[in-house]
Amino acid sequence: MSVASAARLRRAARETVSGLPREFWWLWTSTLVNRLGAFVATFMALYLTLDRGYSASYAGLVASLHGLGGVVSSLGGGVMADRLGRRPTLLIAQTATAGSVALLGFMHDPVAIAAVAFLVGMASNASRPAVQAMMADIVRPEDRVRAFSLNYWAINLGFAVSSMAAGFIAEFSYLAGFLIEAGMTLACALVVFLKVPESRPTATAKQADGDVSLGTVLRDGRYMAVVGLSFLVALVFQQGSVGLPVAMGRAGFSPADYGLAIAVNGILIVALQIPVTRFIEHRDARTLLVLSSLLAGYGFGLTAFAGSVGVFALTVCVWTLAEIVNAPTQTGLVVQLSPVHGRGRYQGMYTLSWSVAALIAPLMSGAVIDRFGAEWLWGMCAVVGTAAGLGYGVLMRRLPAKEGEREQEQESGAPGVVAAAEGAEGAGARTA
User: Which residue, 49, 241, 279, 410, is the most exposed by fewest CB within 10 angstroms?
Assistant: First the structure.
């Protein structure tokens, strides 16, 4: 590597991490530690079937209940983030996650295991709206896409490491995996407690009287359209972990073949998330969301023509690029459309779209593959991705005010914002 190339790399690295507040980096550290210790999700199915001797159907039921817990807590976590504050919500959710994960390791009765798995899903998902809302609070609008991208990178880096470590830990002791994850989750709570201050914006008296509620979110037509499109995109992306392994197994490929193909996803995200974000950071969000939706749909659609591990890996490259572009852009759009004093609830609704997709995707993919064949599933992915791309194209023809302008209006009690809040209160929407 030449001296000039090394200098460019150093400059790019400095520009990537510069300008973000110290609080963000402590929150980022908490996220990374959390994902480094995410062992249970990786080996849960093996634990139930191999160690405990339960059927694959029971393991699927436990996974569904875990997902259902996440669906329930998506909105609850958002409401807590707005009412109690971001920091208390994070501390409650992470402490509850640590306790429930540790408890799950000691459960033997099948009903008790299923019930505690539901609690783990609730507790672990409750922190997501608070994390996203806090990042929006503490990071300047012009830096948010970069911040969300760095956070997404930490999630995937941590998950890649924990997935490899989970296998070794499981060979030693499944219980150790539960306890280590509980301990690392408590470490996350400790980082938040010691280093991360509360970031919830202070509302004026007039804004407090017109508090944003879940009813306000549901009546926000533009935002709910974004949530619906997010659900479609999430439904497509979920097929990487639910439809793809089943389809490859039916085609005669081994679990190791699937592991080799899907490993490309994590490697590319860790390698490309930051440089790609530098390239797209200040580009038109509408174009990026349309493009990423189409890439996701047709990336999975191309799987219908895959006949070797190499071609499967190539299709993974296509939809992984879509994921790299979509994740920070979509999260930035959610913040842009969210009122400052309702970010928790708005983020909770966005999180719900992914939780519901994670719940529906396994049922949908299994039913389609069993009844019609895997080719139909991949064709449906192409159709859904196209529909989402068209939806973003139509929806974003006229964007709202830029984030900084909108926030200044809200914080100064602009008539339009206050009137909308007062209208929501008049409709009895503050009960959420």
Answer: 279
pLDDT of 314 reads 94
Mapped onto helix, strand or coil, the DSSP state of residue 4 is helix
Domains within the chain, CATH numbers bracketed: 21-200 (1.20.1250.20), 205-432 (1.20.1250.20)
In contact, 329 and 145? CB cutoff 8 Å: yes
In single-letter form, the type of residue at position 314 comes to L
The rounded mean pLDDT for the chain is 82
Measured distance CA(76)–CA(33) in Å, rounded: 24
Q: pTM of the predicted model, to two decimals?
A: 0.77
Token look-up 């010691």 returns 194
Lowest mean pLDDT among 8-22, 56-70, 236-250, 265-279: 8-22
Q: How far apart are CA 346 and CA 223, in angstroms?
A: 8
The answer to whether 306 and 383 have CB atoms below 8 angstroms apart is no
Return the amino acid letter for 115.
Answer: A
Chain position carrying tokens 């919830």 = 200
In our burial notation (b when 16+ CB lie closer than 10 A, e otherwise), range 170-187 reads beeebeebbbbbbebbbb
**What span, in angstroms and rounded, lies between the C-alpha atoms of 426 and 106?**
49
